[in-house]
């Protein structure tokens, strides 16, 4: 970066030297001519000296202002360069992870560059109002303008890269969203399948329960007849007990045919199985005074009917 302070101070020094030479000239005339304060020549020289002094003071103030403004531009360019390095490092960590920081840094860089443009316009405006002696400054300003233009190109390339990263992140997010939808659809499909399986299992269990549910009851002939479980058929000489055509399940005890292995009848003198069951699938036994019907083969026992009716006396 060029030393703008040195160039401006050189210009001030030239004005100072001119002022010094004029002062010496006036002093020589005063020494040679004695009292010349009232002479026309002295007054003209004094007037020129005062004018030069005023111009020199104005130039010094103007140049100091220009120097300050260009130093601020230089400082902004340095800040931009540092922020560019930070953005590059953040990009290495992944734009998606550092998006907020990168966007904040870019906003800061753009602010610096806007300030530089405004300051440069002010500097050029001041130079256009100046008359002579600012050729070197104008060259320095042109150099600084080129540096700003080059920096704008770099920033534009950096923003283009970041926009590309934003596009990639957006596409990636869309891909992820699409995958999420696919996963959600799969999960819904699996959930529906699970529901179907649960419902199927429930139907199977219900059917299994229906298939393995059996009913039994026992009592005297009179009790069974009065409850509508049996009916008597035949003539006066020979009547037999048969299961009624229409049975009320509430008159029976509901059991699981797989787990029922015996029916305890209590103390009885007579017992008879009225319902149809293969004789090889059951037998009667006694424990103490209690009579028990033992089921030896449940699949055979319940193969003809799900109702077991035992008549006792």
Write the layout of secondary structure elements.
Elements: H1 4-33, H2 40-92, H3 95-129, H4 135-212, E1 213-219, H5 221-226, E2 230-234, E3 239-243, E4 253-256, E5 262-266, E6 271-273, E7 282-287, E8 290-295, H6 298-301, E9 307-312
Parallel strand pairs: 1-9
Antiparallel strand pairs: 1-4, 2-3, 5-8, 6-9, 7-8
Helix pairs in contact: 1-2, 2-3, 2-4, 3-4
Describe the protein.
The chain has 313 residues and is an alpha+beta fold. It folds into two domains: 4-170, Methane Monooxygenase Hydroxylase, Chain G, domain 1; 220-312, no CATH class. The chain has helices at residues 4-33, 40-92, 95-129, 135-212, 221-226, 298-301; strands at 213-219, 230-234, 239-243, 253-256, 262-266, 271-273, 282-287, 290-295, 307-312. The chain has a four-stranded mixed β-sheet. The chain has a three-stranded antiparallel β-sheet with strand order 5-8-7, with no helix packed on it. The chain has a two-stranded antiparallel ribbon with strand order 2-3. Helix 2 (40-92) packs antiparallel against helix 3.
Provide mean pLDDT, rounded: 77
SS summary, helix count: 6
Class by SSE composition: alpha+beta
Radius of gyration equals 58 Å
